[in-house]
Every structure is written in C-alpha cells, then in structure tokens.
Design goal:
disordered C terminus, five-stranded mixed beta sheet, globular, single chain, 6 helices, alpha/beta
C-alpha cells in the first residue's frame, strides 16, 4: 500500500450523487482562470508575433479542453489535430513492444505526431494528465525529451524575461 492510500484509510467512500449535493461541495470552472494566467508565465505576444503554425495532440486527455481557449484568447495559430477525449486510447499507435502507452519520447507511440512534422512549424502532444510532452519540428523530428521541473506547459520556452533564472526554460523565440 502506498503512502497516499494508507493516509486515506479512514476516509469513507460517498456515492457521487450524494457528494455533489453536500454543502461542502462546489463546482468551479478552472479552464479560463488557468488559461488567462498563462500570460504571466509565457510571453504569448512573442509566440503570436513569431507567426508559428502549431499543431497539438492532447492524446485523448483532459487538456484537449484547454487548447481552444488558449488559441482564442491569445490569437495563436494552433490546430488541435485530435480533439476527442478518449479514455480507451484507441487512437494510439503501439510502442516498440506492441503495447499502448503514452510515452511522449517514443517515436513508435508518437508515430502520428511524427507524421505531422512537415505540416506544422512545431507540433506537440501532451500525455492525458499533461505532465509530459513530445515535440516535433520539421528539422529535428521528434525531439529528445528534456527533464522538466514539475508540470510545465509546452509553450513555456516563451517565458517572460521577468522569470529568467527561475527554471522556466526561457529560450530565444527565434531558435
């Protein structure tokens, strides 16, 4: 038993219908606050100004619902190539061993993304819980994965200068 499961031994399960009716439960829409706050860590003007044609595949996960608002609010040229949320992952190509996995560093698992390399200046995919991503460019193909400190948005290379030295991954937009 892992530490999280052990820590919750005394927590009783409650049916969903009862839980949503409880006075302690509230619903919040978190997409727009998150998307609006991206401007504080990513220089969206630099991305828009670069005129990049971007393709993204959220790999059937919940991040699919974020890309439309990101595109609309910041006026970017992003095409979501697979907007379907699919918990069965039936769209995935198999990895080198014939298994389906969300390995964003595997050219086998990312075969569909690699196939987009000549259609977009940058194409990227994020795994269903958005903590890993694969990036494809026309010149490099599937880029080697880089270790990331915590969860990081694929566009974070465009962090504003105020975040320089914070581990935000800032790069020159012309690279």
């Amino acid at each position: 038993m892992n530490c999280c499961a052990a820590a919750n031994n005394g927590v009783k399960r409650v049916p969903f219908a009862r839980a949503v009716q409880a006075g302690t439960t509230r619903q919040e829409i978190i997409v727009l606050p998150y998307v609006n706050d991206l401007r504080n860590v990513i220089d969206m003007d630099a991305i828009r100004g670069a005129g990049l044609k971007l393709g993204v595949d959220p790999l059937g996960g919940a991040a699919g619902h974020y890309w439309g608002p990101i595109n609309e609010i910041y006026g970017l040229n992003i095409e979501v190539v697979n907007p379907k949320v699919d918990p069965t992952f039936s769209f995935m190509t198999v990895d080198h061993d014939g298994k389906i996995r969300m390995d964003c560093s595997s050219p086998y698992a990312m075969a569909r993304l690699v196939g987009l390399k000549d259609k977009y200046r940058v194409a990227f995919a994020n795994d269903p819980d958005s903590d890993r991503h694969g990036i494809v460019t026309p010149s490099a193909g599937l880029m080697k994965p880089q270790p990331l400190p915590g969860c990081r948005h694929p566009l974070s290379a465009y962090a504003p200068p105020a975040l320089a030295g914070t581990g935000s991954g800032r790069q020159d937009a012309s690279q």
